[in-house]
Amino acid sequence: MGFIVGLVIGLAVGITIIIGFVKAENYRSKLRSELANTVAAFARMTVEDSRKLLPAEFYPSWVVFSERQNCLAFYLLQLTWLNHHLTKIWPYVDEAASELIKASVEPVLEQYRPAIVASLTFSKLTLGTVAPQFTGVSIVDGDKNGMTMELDMNWDGNPNIVLGIKTLVGVSLPVQVKNIGFTGVFRLIFRPLVDEFPCFGAVSVSLREKKKLDFTLKVVGGDISAIPGLSEAIEETIRDAVEDSITWPVRKVIPIMPGDYSDLELKPVGMLEVKLVQAKNLTNKDLVGKSDPFAKMFIRPLREKTKRSKTINNDLNPIWNEHFEFVVEDASTQHLVVRIYDDEGVQASELIGCAQVRLCELEPGKVKDVWLKLVKDLEIQRDNKNRGEVHLELLYVPFGSGNGIVNPFASSSMTSLERVLKNDTTDEENTTSRRRKDVIVRGVLSVTVISAEEIPIQDLMGKADPYVVLSMKKSGAKSKTRVVNDSLNPVWNQTFDFVVEDGLHDMLVLEVWDHDTFGKDYIGRCILTLTRVIMEEEYKDWFPLDESKTGKLQLHLKWMAQSIYRDS
């Protein structure tokens, strides 16, 4: 009896285990099938499908959907077709483009010819057998009167380019340009749109972005290094020629239909006024002593359009207070680049750091005061090393008011600075002598040193005895406040007046010192240009102390102007 009961129970348990195992396998098989269907569904999803499932605000910051992704399949098909046909017609393009490039680039090469070279021409110029490949295409929105297309291009070609170079001593050198590697973005602007085929009047071609341009130079049958400096000079000439002949905003306008397309040509749209004030905490590049910094600034990296400041010897916190002007040709895409170098005398200067400001971030007619952090390379975003900062004052002034931007220098409601700059200029232009006059902004600067906060501890008792020395950098006039004993948050409320002969080029320097019985200890300083107080006439603000870990000064500044002129 017990055996039979045990057998029945064993069979029941066995059957139960078998049934459970079969159900588990069926369930796992169902899950696998559903997962496969889900993966297949995700594989068929488009960008629009993903946007419907999950709104944009739920995506992490590194997920970006561009217009190229939206039409990726279509664009890839078009690019495949374009590259295929370009390869087929490349021999004919080579023949036509070689003559066009030679005719248009040779004058530019001559313009940027190095001083050690007597003549620079093309001896041979063919583009080779390898056609460039287009790797991306996009349409730029926002132009109602035309269409803008951007094409990503990559070219690792085998051109045969030989430059005929004649040196000043009469030596002729055939220099071959080899191993050309180029990656960039070309911009095509089809404008204006018309109601006749092909529906646009002209095409403007420009190199929108030059991502990479590599090449090597080799003297045919010789060594280019035999003439010191020749290779670097020729390479710089080639890069300048590319920059000046086709790099945006420069463009080549190709008429398709008869008409006047002069409005498509490159024209200046405004002026950028730059005051290079100072730099601080620069990296020291010298083993003995300190760096000798100077600055180079440009909007377009051409030699004749690059401005250079004076060199400040043996100083990691230089004060330049120099003014420069730049022509702006496209405020929406151009930017100002600042590079700080260490002057090494006869040797090549060493880069300390660089920075840039996008002109589209400037409000026309408004002075912008900026401190820019220096980096090693503008293309590298992650640079945590402290290379110092540079201080600029920027003012963008568009030409005219036809674009809806009112030029403040022509406005009826002017600040005192604008009235000084505008006053009497019309009468002067109408005089027969036509002599140029420089504006000298003269007046009285009233400075009230109100207080300071968070002065660093200077004494053993955990206090300080601070006072402030005020000086005008150009005139050398000085004053100082009284000493406030045993205070890290002193209050002075003292006012000082300075007669300023040239406010646009002078600076106010305020140095904070700790008074000791047998001397004094330097705490920090503030350096202020007079641009803001001249334009606003009066303001009160806090200013951090440079060269000090903590501390700030509260100042009240007031300007009482009196303009004079001098002939130049």
Task: Please render the helix and strand layout as text.
Blueprint: H1 2-44, H2 47-53, H3 67-70, H4 72-111, E1 117-126, E2 133-140, E3 147-155, E4 160-167, E5 172-190, E6 202-219, H5 230-245, E7 252-255, E8 270-280, E9 293-298, E10 307-308, E11 319-328, E12 335-342, E13 350-358, E14 368-373, E15 389-398, H6 416-422, H7 425-430, E16 437-453, E17 466-472, E18 478-480, E19 491-500, E20 507-516, E21 519-529, H8 531-536, E22 538-544, E23 552-567
Antiparallel strand pairs: 1-4, 2-3, 3-5, 4-5, 5-6, 6-7, 8-11, 8-15, 9-10, 9-12, 12-13, 14-15, 16-19, 16-23, 17-18, 17-20, 20-21, 22-23
Describe the 3D structure.
- The protein has helices at residues 2-44, 47-53, 67-70, 72-111, 230-245, 416-422, 425-430, 531-536, and strands spanning 117-126, 133-140, 147-155, 160-167, 172-190, 202-219, 252-255, 270-280, 293-298, 307-308, 319-328, 335-342, 350-358, 368-373, 389-398, 437-453, 466-472, 478-480, 491-500, 507-516, 519-529, 538-544, 552-567.
- With 568 residues, it is of the alpha+beta class.
- The strands form five sheets. Strands 1, 2, 3, 4, 5, 6 and 7 form a seven-stranded antiparallel sheet that branches. It has a four-stranded antiparallel sheet with strand order 11-8-15-14, with no helix packed on it. Strands 10-9-12-13 form a four-stranded antiparallel sheet, with no helix packed on it.
- Helix 4 crosses helix 5.
